[in-house]
Design a protein that fits this description.
mainly alpha, Rhopdopsin 7-helix transmembrane proteins
Length: 301
């Protein structure tokens, strides 16, 4: 069977993301050549904030439609309800952190509550980072577990390849390094462990688990619905792995392993994460639509 064409909504997501990044690189060049940060600050503060909030809204709408597309009693309906709730948490988090309480200084959107070093942030901003980061991840992981259980019942299992294990190795390194440095920094500075910082410590283990889950689902579903279901979980795999990459950049700069200019490309990683999270449910919806129209055979789980 030939590979299906890209869904129209995915093509629009890719187009908008490319245009957004093009303007972002133009603003970066203007900043680097003129020394005046007004353009890059405006891009990150207004265009960047609008992008992550807008794509989080698209993601939530698509996940909600996917949930509604599964009939009551379908084994995948609870999973997509949890995925929709995770998208809603991301949307609420970005509204709080990017609209009502933008972060200090020159920086791009961030996702993750960091355990250390301490950064002065308004309570609304901290709540937004917690919602869009660890809370959303905590909702997404059991959802993928439900999908994996449904696949296992029907003999659908995925064997990870070398590049999958390499990605998991990168995530494992982040988990160990950031957790160790977070504990070391907290003890050295005698910083109390509040709820926000406690959530920050669970992020890397969650990312490792989520990456394993998404990669396994991708391998198991490579040929389902003409490959569209495989692309769905591939998009989630990309979103989680890019989140790992973004966290690696933040970790390396926060603890002084790399100079602060390294964070510049990390700003743009978060936009790709938003696009990947929005593309995942778009593939699922397209698969359901083509099955309903008889263009693809139905796969019952």
């Amino acid at each position: 069977m030939s590979a299906p064409s890209e869904p129209a909504i995915v093509r629009r997501i890719v187009l908008v993301t490319r245009i957004h990044l093009l303007f972002g690189f133009a603003a970066l060049i203007l900043w680097l050549t003129s020394g005046e940060p007004v353009w890059i600050r405006a891009y990150l503060r207004y265009a960047g904030g609008a992008f992550v909030v807008g794509f989080a809204l698209v993601e939530w709408l698509l996940t909600w439609r996917a949930f509604r597309a599964f009939a009551p009693g379908d084994v995948l309906r609870p999973a997509w309800l949890l995925i929709s709730l995770a998208a809603a948490a991301r949307l609420a988090g970005f509204v709080l952190s990017e609209i009502f309480s933008p972060g200090p200084g020159l920086q791009g959107p961030r996702f993750i509550a960091q355990p250390a070093p301490a950064i002065p942030l308004a309570p609304q901003h901290r709540a937004g980072l917690a919602l869009a980061g660890p809370v959303a991840l905590l909702l997404l992981s059991p959802a993928l577990a439900l999908v994996g259980r449904a696949y296992d019942r029907h003999g659908l299992s995925g064997e990870l390849r070398a590049r999958d294990w390499l990605a998991l190795g990168v995530a494992s390194f982040l988990m160990v390094a950031d957790t160790w440095d977070g504990i070391r920094w907290s003890l050295a500075h005698e910083v109390p462990l509040d709820a926000y910082r406690a959530l920050g410590f669970v992020v890397e283990p969650l990312l490792l688990v989520l990456l394993f889950q998404a990669l396994t689902l991708r391998r198991a579903a490579l040929t389902m619905a003409g490959g569209l279901i495989g692309r769905c979980w591939a998009a989630y795999s990309v979103a989680v792995f890019l989140t790992v990459v973004g966290c690696l950049g933040q970790w390396a700069v926060n603890y002084g392993y790399l100079p602060r200019p390294v964070l510049i490309p990390v700003w743009y990683v978060w936009f790709l994460v938003s696009a990947a999270f929005a593309a995942g449910p778009a593939y699922q919806l397209e698969a359901l639509r083509r099955v309903q129209r008889g263009l693809l055979p139905e796969v019952r789980l």
